[in-house]
Design a protein that fits this description.
The protein is an alpha+beta fold and 353 residues long. The chain has two domains: 165 residues, 3-Layer(aba) Sandwich (Rossmann fold); 140 residues, Beta-Lactamase (2-Layer Sandwich). The chain is built from twelve helices and ten strands. One of its GO terms (cellular component) is nucleus.
């Protein structure tokens, strides 16, 4: 959500549809509500409400705010954002009344239009004015939002919009705690300064280790993934031919590494069809302990594949339970509870054994 020309559509197109950032300036204004199923590691549906409409647009679409998990408000930080902050405050108060558990994120967008000093100053003003308005609200529940609302400085011309969107979708991953603990243990065991678990097609990271995320490290990892994707198409045809030549199907898990400035190396390991582990390692540590690192990556990959298969089974629709027959309904409650399993086994083996 956000006012007109705030950059909502361009951010969505760049992140989820691979729109080149140079073409973001020519994106047309969204005339109506847009809802789409986004390709991500977990099922994700994204709704965009045009700036000329508010939360009432959801009712016209037959939806209610209680069906949503997160709300993103986009502010054009390169323009006068006074009216946008007023609309944000009205929207936040109304949204909290309809869905108290809703996560709210504010994107101070188009930050590339100004120098570093003005960017930080505008970002600080947006945070302070929003938090002060929430703290002055008479409702104690609305005042609590001042501590939970999240702010992000974003632009489509760097990877900041990907980092901000990653933080938003992380809260939608039900197993985020387990994934964070796994990466923490892995990075601490191998003394790796920073690592990310990326959803490669969207270039959003699902989780990272406990150390703070600094923009330069995130930029390096994102750029490395983009470089790998740009050259991987050259080898896809030969890999497909090799797969066809083999009688047994082989799961190819690519990996590569490159030395960067200083005594640092960026390493990439494919975990599954969508997931990849990207880490920043000291070069001498990577060279001296390459075998131990690869062995731990293999263990992590095996665990993640089992975990991913388990999550996929959970998301499958359950088959309908066969209704009990008329004779079973006349039995006692305890017998009727056992009836479906008895009939299911007899149906699978008509001869009874």
């Amino acid at each position: 959500m956000g006012l007109r020309r705030a950059g909502k559509t361009s951010a969505r197109e760049v992140v989820f549809h691979r729109l080149p950032p140079k073409q973001a300036f020519f994106v047309d204004t969204t005339p109506g509500v847009v809802k789409e199923d986004v390709e991500f590691w977990v099922p994700l549906q994204l709704w965009e409400i045009p700036g000329s409409q508010g939360l009432e647009a959801l009712e016209a679409e037959g939806a209610h705010l209680s069906h949503f998990s997160s709300l993103i408000w986009v502010i054009d930080a390169a323009d006068d954002y006074t009216e946008s902050l007023r609309a944000l405050f009205r929207t936040v108060v109304s949204a909290h009344q309809q869905n108290p558990s809703l996560h709210i994120d504010v994107f101070a967008h188009k930050s590339d239009a100004w120098d570093e000093y003005y960017r930080q100053d505008a970002f600080r003003q947006i945070q302070d004015r929003t938090i002060n308005e929430l703290e002055d609200h008479p409702s104690p529940r609305v005042q609590e939002l001042a501590e939970s609302i999240q702010f992000h400085l974003t632009s489509v011309y760097d990877h900041s919009v990907f980092e901000a969107m990653s933080r938003v979708v992380q809260r939608l991953v039900p197993t985020l705690g387990f994934l964070e603990q796994t990466l923490n243990y892995w990075s601490q065991t191998l003394d790796i300064p920073k690592c990310f678990l990326f959803d490669v097609p969207s270039r959003l990271y699902i989780t990272t280790d406990a150390s703070p995320v600094d923009p330069p490290s995130h930029d390096v990892c994102c750029q490395y993934i983009e470089n790998i994707e740009s050259v991987s198409q050259l080898f896809q045809r030969s890999m497909l031919e090799r797969r066809k030549a083999r009688k047994k199907k082989v799961a190819y898990r690519s990996s590569c590494s490159s030395k960067i400035a200083g005594d640092n190396t960026v390493a990439y390991w494919q975990i599954s069809e969508r997931l990849a582990l990207v880490a920043l390692v000291q070069t001498h540590m990577f060279d001296d302990h390459r075998g131990a690192i690869e062995m731990n990556v293999k263990s992590l990959r095996d665990a993640m594949l089992k975990f991913e298969a388990l999550e996929a089974r959970k998301r499958r629709p359950r088959p309908p339970v066969a209704p009990a027959n008329a004779n079973a309904s006349s039995k006692s409650d305890s017998s009727s509870l056992r009836t479906p399993s008895v009939h299911a086994s007899s149906a699978g083996n008509p001869n009874g054994g």
